[in-house]
Amino acid sequence: MKIIIAGAGAMGSRFGLMLHQANNEVILIDGWQDHIDAINNNGLQANFDGEMVTESLEIYHQDDVSSIDFNADLVILFTKAMQLDSMMQSIQNMVGKNTKVLCLLNGIGHEDVIKNYVPLSNILLGNTMWTAGIEAPGKVKLFGNGSIDLQNLGADGQEAAEEVVAVLSEAKLNAKYSANILSSIYRKGCVNGTMNGLCTILDSNMADFGETDAADQIVEQIVSEFAAVAAMENADINVPEVLAQIKSCYNRETIGLHHPSMYQDLIINNRLTEIDYINGAIARKGKEYGIPTPYCSFLTKLVHAKEQVLAAV
Ligand code: NAD
């Protein structure tokens, strides 16, 4: 398959590398010049489960794609949420009338942006449990296993979605078709919508937060706001199950000592966060549906204030 990875940071590099290794024709598009230069000069270098791997992959700056002749079957979106619109603008001429566009970003409501550039019938939404990290421009760390759930957004797109599932699975990315992707997206949103913002504001790992007196009440309130908004979109959140999943993040023996990705973005790397597309999306949609979302609204404001205090970029 001819595949564009639009947003080739940590996750885009993982997907690009694995799809390339499975003999797909892959090009990467990104906006970070140092990363592009490093990949052009030295290849994409990965610490892949402890083995050092270098692959030669084509990569272009998103401002420089007008002359590329590449009739893509599939575009996989892996920008940060706040970069999505500008990436869609950059690549719009590369998205043909049969090109499928798969969004795997964390967060809620990205289809509202993508719909401005791609017909509904070509949009696929997904959710992934793979992880990845950037070590330096051109160098990524890819550890562990993961999976992908995806579904077509338009009514007639299941066959195309199944084809994409097959290509991803052939590349060992463990994809499966989902009959209700919105529910998985909202469920993952609950985990991100609690652990990410709260640990970032409190400057704590997940275990330390989980052991505070207020943890249960705060988490239950945030999850209830997500569930109320999800119900308006026919997405189903099993609240006790989601709360149990969140509590499993507090376990010191497994992942409790870990700082969530938003903490790493803002506190470690001084980068802006995706809060507007997690808790902020619930606050926006809550307003639209007449549902009060006081905790999601407040947490969104607090994270933005912290971004400003730290002069994040
Ligand atoms: P990323 O930050 O690694 O990459 C996103 C974009 O930011 C890329 O264009 C990248 O080149 C650019 N970028 C990265 N570091 C930069 C720097 N120092 N200076 C300038 N530009 C820089 O993001 P990601 O982790 O690949 O995440 C992409 C999407 O996938 C997000 O929505 C994220 O929430 C989601 N996601 C991430 C993971 C994970 O483990 N990383 C897991 C699941 C979902």
TrEMBL record:
<dbReference type="InterPro" id="IPR013332">
    <property type="entry name" value="KPR_N"/>
</dbReference>
<comment type="similarity">
    <text>Belongs to the ketopantoate reductase family.</text>
</comment>
<dbReference type="GO" id="GO:0015940">
    <property type="term" value="P:pantothenate biosynthetic process"/>
</dbReference>
<dbReference type="Pfam" id="PF02558">
    <property type="entry name" value="ApbA"/>
</dbReference>
<keyword id="KW-0566">Pantothenate biosynthesis</keyword>
<dbReference type="Pfam" id="PF08546">
    <property type="entry name" value="ApbA_C"/>
</dbReference>
<dbReference type="InterPro" id="IPR008927">
    <property type="entry name" value="6-PGluconate_DH-like_C_sf"/>
</dbReference>
<dbReference type="InterPro" id="IPR013752">
    <property type="entry name" value="KPA_reductase"/>
</dbReference>
<comment type="pathway">
    <text>Cofactor biosynthesis; (R)-pantothenate biosynthesis; (R)-pantoate from 3-methyl-2-oxobutanoate: step 2/2.</text>
</comment>
<dbReference type="GO" id="GO:0008677">
    <property type="term" value="F:2-dehydropantoate 2-reductase activity"/>
</dbReference>
<feature type="domain" description="Ketopantoate reductase C-terminal">
    <location>
        <begin position="180"/>
        <end position="307"/>
    </location>
</feature>
<comment type="function">
    <text>Catalyzes the NADPH-dependent reduction of ketopantoate into pantoic acid.</text>
</comment>
<protein>
    <recommendedName>
        <fullName>2-dehydropantoate 2-reductase</fullName>
        <ecNumber>1.1.1.169</ecNumber>
    </recommendedName>
</protein>
<dbReference type="InterPro" id="IPR050838">
    <property type="entry name" value="Ketopantoate_reductase"/>
</dbReference>
<dbReference type="GO" id="GO:0050661">
    <property type="term" value="F:NADP binding"/>
</dbReference>
<dbReference type="InterPro" id="IPR036291">
    <property type="entry name" value="NAD(P)-bd_dom_sf"/>
</dbReference>
<keyword id="KW-0560">Oxidoreductase</keyword>
<dbReference type="GO" id="GO:0005737">
    <property type="term" value="C:cytoplasm"/>
</dbReference>
<dbReference type="InterPro" id="IPR013328">
    <property type="entry name" value="6PGD_dom2"/>
</dbReference>
<dbReference type="InterPro" id="IPR003710">
    <property type="entry name" value="ApbA"/>
</dbReference>
<keyword id="KW-0521">NADP</keyword>
<feature type="domain" description="Ketopantoate reductase N-terminal">
    <location>
        <begin position="3"/>
        <end position="153"/>
    </location>
</feature>
